[in-house]
Amino acid sequence: MSRRRRRNSGTGGQIAAIAILAVVLVTVLACIFWFWIRANDAFVAIDEETLCPKQGIAAQTIVLLDTTDALSRVTQSEVLNRLNDLTASLPRGGYLDIRVLNENPDLTASILSLCNPGAGGDIDPLIGNPELAGKRWAERFAGPVAEALAASVSGGAQNFSPILAALQQIAAERLSTKEQQAVETRIVVVSDMLEHTGYYSHFRDGRSIATYRDIAGSRYLTDLHGAEIDFWMVMRDRPDIDVTELAEFWLQWADMSKGRGHVVRLMGM
């Protein structure tokens, strides 16, 4: 009797050990699978040149800087501070396009177009490398953006300021597809907002939206598809220009172009 009990006890111990081992193995496999799922969900394939997610950008911000007339040092300081805040608020996977206005519309082009790859603060060290992400962000995004912004606020006198043509080009390039229209878009224009070309000029033709519509409405027809557009107005020593009237012109233009306009008056002159 006692021998049988010892034999049964040994068999029962083996079964219990196997059961415990099976539970441990299942737990380990479950943990591995959980980490794999988390890592797979967190992984975003990016384009190595633009740092943009291959699956599509999260948002887009386009900055148009008008330096066809030089900015004062006070205005430059404010503009740089505001633009630094703007780029800092860009979400991970958000696209940033910085353009400098040229008197020749064909020469108004991007001086920088990159996506924010993220500084690594949202990366779990168990499944990623936040330190490596932070290094990439500093070297490939933050550094080049700071250099581009610093270079863009300096400029000299030019004969024309084709703001309307530049905005039309931005809409054509960045808001003409359904995919582009689906993401949140913000356009920031840093300028005295005085359109001046041989075709239409705020100096020559006035600042009435009705006059603009008659003269140049068809030529500069623009569809912003609901994008937010901020006009950061550079103040000039021009007593003949009614700044309130000028601001109203651009708010009306934004409205007729299916955008959401805002005006901010900058310091300096």
- What CATH first level of the largest domain would be assigned? Alpha Beta
Distance between the termini: 106 Å
- Please name the CATH topology of the largest domain: Rossmann fold
Total of domains: 2
Taking all residues together, what is the mean pLDDT?
A: 86
Report the biggest beta sheet as strand number plus sense, adding barrel if it closes. 6 strands, mixed
Pattern of helices and strands: HEHEEHHHEHHEHE
Q: Within the largest sheet, what's the order of strands?
A: 3-2-1-4-5-6
Helical fraction equals 40-55%
CATH architecture assignment of the largest domain: 3-Layer(aba) Sandwich
The overall strand count is 6
Shape: elongated
Class from helix and strand fractions: alpha/beta
Residue share in β-strands = 15-25%
Number of helices: 8
Radius of gyration: 29 Å
What do we call the CATH homologous superfamily of the largest domain?
von Willebrand factor, type A domain
Question: What keyword list fits this structure?
Answer:
alpha/beta; 2 domains; Rossmann fold; 15% strand; 269 residues; elongated; 6 strands
Describe it.
This protein is of the alpha/beta class and 269 residues long. It folds into two domains: 1-43; 59-265, von Willebrand factor, type A domain (Rossmann fold). It has helices at residues 2-42, 73-88, 130-152, 163-174, 178-181, 202-205, 209-216, 243-256; strands at 59-65, 94-100, 109-115, 184-191, 228-233, 260-265. A six-stranded mixed beta sheet has the order 3-2-1-4-5-6, with helices on both faces. Helix 2 runs antiparallel to helix 3. It is elongated, with a radius of gyration of 29 Å. The N and C termini lie far apart (106 Å).
